[in-house]
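Inputs:
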Amino acid sequence: MEDDPTTRRRRSSALHTADRWPITPFNRLFAPIYLLAVLALLYRHVTNLLVPATSSPSSFTTTLALLVADLVLAFMWATTQVFRMNPIRRREAVENLNDVVAEEGELPGVDVFICTADPYKEPPLGVVNTALSVMAYDYPRDRLAVYVSDDGGSALTLFAFVEAAKFAARWLPFCERNRVVERNPAVYFGSNRGHPVDGEVEEIKTMYESMKHKVEHVVEAGKVDDQFIDGPKEQEAFGKWSDKFTKHNHPTFIQVLLDSKNDKDVDGHVMPNLIYVSREKSSTSQHHFKAGALNVLLRVSATMTNQPIVLTLDCDMYSNDPATPRRAMCYLCDPKLGPENSAFVQFPQKYHGINENDIYAGEFQRLFQAMPMGADGLCGPHHVGTGCFFRRRAFFGSPSSPVAPEIPEVGPDHVVGGSVRSGSVLELAHRVAECGYENQTSWGSKMGFRYGSMVEDLYTGFHLHCEGWRSIFCYPEQPSFLGDSPISFADVLIQQSRWSVGAFELSMSKKSPLFMGIRKLGWLMGLGYCHFSFWPIWSLPITTYAFLPQLALLNGVSVFPKVSDPWFLLYTFLFLGSYLQDMLEFTTVSNSTFRRWWNEQRIWTVRGLSCFLFGGFDFVLKSLGVSTKGFSLTSKVVDEEQRQRYEKGMFEFGVSSPIFLPMAMAALINLVSFGFGLGRVLTGGWWNVEGLVLQIVLSGFGVLNSVPIYEAMVVRRDPGKFPARGSFAAVVVSVVLCSLASVMFSF
Ligand SMILES: O=c1ccn([C@@H]2O[C@H](COP(=O)(O)OP(=O)(O)O[C@H]3O[C@H](CO)[C@@H](O)[C@H](O)[C@H]3O)[C@@H](O)[C@H]2O)c(=O)[nH]1
Ligand SMILES: [Mn+2]
């Protein structure tokens, strides 16, 4: 049959399908019922405020605090419902791609961007392995270009890539011939999953070990010794570095390590392009962290290869499935979908090495899986920074009104003239990577990744959606990418404090989802974006419920209805209703365990008492111009002892940090108030504490959630335990807080 466009169009329908979640009808039914209960609760608070039972100032303050807390809970509840209204799960039929794209040569080219920023926090060997895993994709090699952005400006990282380019010439054909699935060599050689061990495997393994040894040696030494430099070309590359350069002050370095027009693998087949880029840095310019780095890569790649699709990856997110680009192409090449409906294809963030019960809730099942599926049934998932295939065009204005860049050579329509090694191409590439280049241009505002938030991913995705672009969530059974998840508790909380600052930067901006979002995307998606951008305000109700009812209990003051009061039923329904629905969804949709769900709800409360709170403070300080805190990079270095403790499910406190203080205080105060409540029950019987029952139950719940903190404070002796200084501080501040509360409740 002739392959005319109509036939192809028809066939493309088989490229992907979408299924609905089975529990959606229940969720849709439950939402209005729960809403009525929420309204009833708010009504109760308001009447209590206006017509108080007692006229004490403390009871007025308590009711007001609970009203505010419940208003925030109600708002966040509403934003969560958005994702429950029409969630879909897509599946791709990669085998049908060849019907639509008749020849391999028709597949669109992909420029892959990998960001790294510090050779000590992000070991170059890991970055190199990520690059190797994507260079070895099952995709025409001449249509693949890998760009590495090194914000560390480090010769150590370049050295690792020089070695990787040599190793790739063996590794790529090996993977292809043997249909290797794990194309990250560290994973392949690290797992003993019955790989055939023959002469060739042994030889490649030795080659890998030698590369690893050299790279690790160089990183440890902190410099590239002459003995490791091979030939005049390398001499020239490393000769560009000087001792005077620092991470924050150095010229542009662009090094073409592999060029698909000239470089061949050991079998004589072409190699993908591999290009190292370190943009110019100067201590007097703004660099906009990762967003800035990505915009430089957008321009540099435009001048060198300018392929229509761009894949962005964090340095730790390696490919776990060589068919991934073809999966993405099932959407990007689908003529039925249209470019405006597939501006980007987002894959979920998934991690390797998370412990059995996921004690830190590092899987982010909701944020990275359930909610994107929910949004996919509306206008598409939010962007999560890594594992995302973009149409280059999406960075240059809305689907209907393109924005022209300051020079046509960095635009999506530019046709690259020379080879990536040609003098004129390289000269232009250097120019567009200069730190003053963006002055008086639209980069970061109307073009490229947007500046203005620490979560440039969410921020940029939001702006693209508001411009009229739509996105796709691609969630195959086998994870397409796997990344590192921090295993030290302090690292986890610092990372999420940064996310919290970024979220506030979006929600409090002039283009907040609450206003621009709802206006441009409608109520549903507008509120959906509010969920992410108001994420840290959970800390308000969580902090209130972690302290206020407990302190009241200690003073014998009742803040919830009595057991015999009909309102008691409302409280029970609200609590159990949301918890049970949440548990049901967590365990069925993502097929997870009860223990993981339990840990997840615990971490939710812990976040409210740590990173959300601290992120909020940081945001205020930043807005006032007091703090200029930058991007605190998450360390990807693993301490073996820490890893072992983590495997056993132990929380890693270790360092004394103020971020642990509020949760430790909550643990202590809940314990004391629970003990106090139980004491009253034992001495006076239940009827004596009728009005305090819910407070006793809440304290008990707090105690259950704090078990790992008590263990770390009292029982453990290992280096990951709660530092004695931290415990002491928590006791002192808790005593002060309890005394203040007893004064307050006496009014
Ligand atoms: O100035 C910088 C800072 C960071 N990075 C890179 O950004 C990536 C993400 O940094 P990481 O420390 O791993 O932060 P995470 O919090 O783990 O990253 C999540 O959150 C970020 C937003 O805060 C998103 O950009 C990421 O994609 C998402 O995985 C890494 O590859 C870094 O090398 C840079 O290139 N330049
Ligand atoms: Mn990361």
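DSSP finds 25 helices and twelve strands in the chain. Flag for discussion at group meeting.
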